[in-house]
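for the writeup, i need someone to sanity check this before i put it in the appendix. the sequnce is what the collaborator sent (i think, or maybe the updated version? ugh). structure was predicted straight from it, no edits. if anything looks off just tell me and ill rerun, i have time this weekend
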Amino acid sequence: MTDDLSPSGVADAVASDLLADGDIDVTSWTDLEHLPREMDALAAQYAEIFGYARTWVCQRAGFEPSPVCLLRPLAELMDVLTSVLGTVERVGRDHWDDLHDGVVATTADLRTVDAWVADVLPVVA
């Protein structure tokens, strides 16, 4: 089987990949303009997941219904789990924020270089 390497064949392959995998694909520099907004949406989802875990998963009350409950010792582990989740969330968010800032800075740099190149190159009529 041969691959279609014509411009329309390549465009069709790229389009089908964009639709099939659900990933955020950057296919041109202008796509970088919108990437920080997409990253902010993912960061909000990340925060919601950790908020849910702290609120509902790390509840001590479920392990302390009475003084004789056999699961009562697990209540103390919920405090440890809350602390671990906080650390994981903070470290992950710090890395995500660094990546976000890098995308914003790179986008600005590319815009500057594009403007510089457009100013230096002669205009073709």
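The longest helix spans residues 74-120. The chain has a mean pLDDT of 82.
thx in advance!!
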